[in-house]
Write a structure and sequence with these properties.
By secondary structure, the protein is of the alpha/beta class. It has helices at 38-48, 64-74, 138-150, 180-187, 193-200, 240-253, 258-272, 285-291, and strands at residues 2-5, 9-16, 32-36, 53-59, 78-84, 90-97, 102-107, 129-132, 154-158, 175-179, 206-210, 216-220, 223-227, 299-301. Helix 1 (38-48) crosses helix 6 and helix 7 crosses helix 8 (285-291). It has a ten-stranded mixed sheet with strand order 5-4-1-8-9-10-11-12-13-14, with helices on both faces. A four-stranded mixed sheet has the order 3-2-6-7.
Length: 307
Amino acid sequence: MLVVLGSINADLVLEVEGLPRPGETVLCPGWRLAHGGKGANQAAAAAKLGARVRFLGRIGPDPWGPVLREGLAAAGVDVDGLAPSPRPSGTAVIAVERSGENLILVASGANLDVSLDQLDGAGLGPGTTLLCQNEIPLPVTLGALGRAHAAGARTILNLAPASELPSGALDSVDLLVVNEHEAATLLGGPREAEAAAAALAGPARTCVLTLGRAGALAVGPDGGWRVPALPIRPVDTTGAGDTFVGALAAFLDLGLALPDALARASVAAGLACERLGAREGQPERAAVEARLGELGPPVPFAVPRGS
């Protein structure tokens, strides 16, 4: 079972000709509501791929709350752990331009009230996985990872959005997933991709580094692996990273080896870019398997020494 502790948001999406610069006003014809939040997006992506998923989070007393709960349940996620908060439900405003690039502003709201006691009764232990991100208070995330690790569960941290971490914070993380910016934040500056992943990996920890159009790579105790991105024409990159993380967690929880899970996560992320919306474009497993041949097999590489 995959347990996701994290954020859930109502996304207000605006399609624009070009993203605004500081001080600039950009007009567009209208907006649409989409379901979002990194935690909820990753949970939905994993459930659509066949994993058994339980989500733990908070929603507010506003009209968005029931809509968010129903949307996540419709994706196949167990939402019994989605608790009430007196704060408004999390809300994001997302501007998407023709190229597929986006600009996102997030009001955390009820996500700030996610708490460690929501793990009670989650059944974390050997054979389960806890997946966390960085859109709820960091002390709660780190505390949850520590509890899950001590209980024998696999722990996955997607450190997005980027932030620095206190010393020893990664000791309870079995799998760290970051992009190049997030890796640079942790390392105090940019490094070559393979060296960055090697520096963030550990004797018992794997680091997966996502590289956008260049695919992704992983460095762990058993060596390094690289996969390309799926060749596509992007429509909307919103949520592609969340689909990648949710897919990676799902396939690992379903028992696939890291290279196989990494390849399928790359395909899932590419498919998510072919449709508008962070949640709407998430694929089912059959679609991922059908396009897997376009990627080619994962390629091993020698891990840089002294990273």
